[in-house]
Automatic annotation (TrEMBL):
Keyword Zinc found: no
One BP annotation, GO: maturation of SSU-rRNA from tricistronic rRNA transcript (SSU-rRNA, 5.8S rRNA, LSU-rRNA)
Quaternary organization: Associates with 90S and pre-40S pre-ribosomal particles.
Coiled-coil annotated spans: 52-139
Subcellular location: Nucleus, Nucleolus
InterPro entries, alphabetized: RRP36
Region (Disordered): 141-167
Family: Belongs to the RRP36 family.
Protein name as annotated: rRNA biogenesis protein RRP36
Gene Ontology CC annotations of this record: 90S preribosome; nucleolus
UniProt keyword terms in alphabetical order: Coiled coil, Nucleus, Ribonucleoprotein, Ribosome biogenesis, rRNA processing
Function: Component of the 90S pre-ribosome involved in the maturation of rRNAs. Required for early cleavages of the pre-RNAs in the 40S ribosomal subunit maturation pathway.
Protein source organism: Serilophus lunatus
């Protein structure tokens, strides 16, 4: 700043050199960054899957070598988290593929001149459940899954019933 005499009164409108204010932009909410499309994102960053796979193998090797219980527990948690993320990604991919196939079918019907029919959320859920049951039946885990579901429902029913003390 310019040095001014203390004896001279300061003018009311003093000229100050203006500094440009930095404009921060968040790429998540900015239109300049483009629109998020999961298909394009997955194609662009598909190399990450191979890196994640290598890291998972490294963690498994470390887990086998490790003797320290605390370290072993941490590695086990990390491995579990990696596995869960992998499963979630596969599930998301299946869901995306299913939606894409439904869209393709609708386009084909529209090309034939038929009126497009869009499924409700409940109908989509039913289709997803039917697919899940078919997958479980194929893998031979359907019976154990149904047993667990029965037990869970029985516990819920017991909780809803009035207690014997109140009778």
């Amino acid at each position: 700043p310019l040095e001014m005499s203390a004896k001279k009164p300061v003018p009311f409108l003093r000229q100050v050199v203006s500094a440009r204010k930095k404009v921060h932009r968040d790429p998540r909410f900015d239109d300049l960054s483009g629109e998020y499309k999961p298909e394009i994102f997955m194609k662009t960053y598909s190399f990450l899957n191979s890196i994640k796979k290598q890291e998972k193998e490294m963690v498994q090797k470390q887990l086998k070598k490790c003797r320290n219980t605390e370290q072993k527990e941490k590695l086990q948690q990390l491995l579990n988290r990696m596995t869960q993320q992998e499963q979630a990604q596969k599930k998301e991919q299946k869901l995306r593929e299913r939606e894409l196939s439904l869209k393709r079918q609708q386009r084909e019907l529209a090309k034939q001149g038929k009126k497009p029919f869009f499924l409700k959320k409940s109908e989509k859920r039913k289709l997803e459940l039917a697919e899940k049951y078919a997958e479980l039946k194929r893998s031979g885990k359907l019976e154990s899954f149904l047993n667990k579901k029965r037990k869970r429902n029985a516990i819920k029913d017991k909780r809803r019933l009035p207690s014997q003390k109140n009778l």
